Amino acid sequence: MSQHDRIKPEDALTQADYETLAAFRHALRRFASFSSAAAKQAGLTTQQHQALLAIKGAPAGTSMTVGRLAEDLMLAPHTAAELVTRLEAADLVAKRDDPADRRRTVLTLRPQAEDKLRALTLVHRREVRQLAPRLLALFRDLEA
């Protein structure tokens, strides 16, 4: 441990700090488990669902590219390219050259992906709304 890593008196932790962080991590794992199960029920892997959501959720006026998808999903570029290839083979994603920069490939959702993503987003929104009060309380506790 370097001298910069030494614990300062204001960094003291209480049992409540550990309990709050453990509860927060549990809530995140619960949501991740719910999300994975919902994706599987829709015939998608968790990664495929995340990719479809990232493509659809790109800020207005921007295009989703394979490189940006890799960044958004925290994947290696070649892994994102393989994911896109599988999504394209499943007729969920279409690729086209970016007219502004032909070196880039722009990703769009196919109608089947739009339908799956809409259904998944509706159930995810319900789940988030159920979890929100608990998460907000945990955020408040972590801030205190």
Architecture overview:
By secondary structure, this protein is mostly helical. Helix content is 64%, strand content 12%. It contains five helices and three strands, in the order ααβααββα. It has helices at residues 15-41, 46-56, 66-73, 77-89, 111-143; strands spanning 64-65, 93-98, 101-109. The chain has a three-stranded antiparallel beta sheet with strand order 1-3-2. Helix 1 (15-41) runs antiparallel to helix 5 (111-143). The protein is globular and about 55 Å long. The two termini are 27 Å apart. The relative contact order is 0.13.
Short description, anyone?
The chain has 144 residues and is mainly alpha-helical. It has five helices and three strands. The chain is globular and about 55 Å long.
